[in-house]
Amino acid sequence: MADEKSDRKKYAKPLPRLDEESRPWWEALQRHELYIQKCRDCGDLRYYPRALCTNCLSARTEWVRCSGRGTVYTFTATMQNQAPGFRESLPYVMAYVQLAEGLKVLTNLVECKPDEVKIGMPVEAVFEDATPEVTLLKFRPAR
Question: Theoretical Cys-Cys bridge with 70: which of 1, 47, 99, 119, CB 3.0 to 4.6 Å?
Fold first, then answer.
């Protein structure tokens, strides 16, 4: 318990709540792998994890590995934010990345300055180990 509290102090931003619907997502990120849900009935892909298919309402789900590659669909650069944990990261870029598999994910872009980001820019997944239990998905310019 003491370790968890000290980890939370080190990582100052809010952490996600892991639940049964999203647990496989977070477990894959801990392994530095990207998986998304696929409906076994209609084949629809979905992000974020949900119990039912958003297309046909089937509960039959499988997890499929993604390439971790995509392009910037849209983005915004934040230059001011006085909230603890965020002010230390200024400036930062939030973006929707369209994965090569077709889905869009909301994420941070890292390892680039805000004025270097362009819509359509190729990006690749990187993984931030925020705590021993939580790894976050982020993207950087493709190498």
Answer: 99
- Looking only at the bridges linking them, the beta strands covering 45-46 and 104-109 are unpaired
DSSP-derived 3-state class of residue 8? helix
Look at the chain and count its residues: 143
The string of pLDDT tens digits covering residues 47-98 is: 989 999 999 999 999 999 999 999 999 999 988 888 888 878 889 999 999 9
Q: The tokens 């869009």 sit on which residue? A: 104
Fold of 67-143: OB fold (Dihydrolipoamide Acetyltransferase, E2P) (2.40.50)
Domain coordinates of the chain in residue numbers? 19-65, 67-143
Taking the C-alpha atoms of residue 49 and residue 132, their distance in angstroms, rounded to an integer, is 21
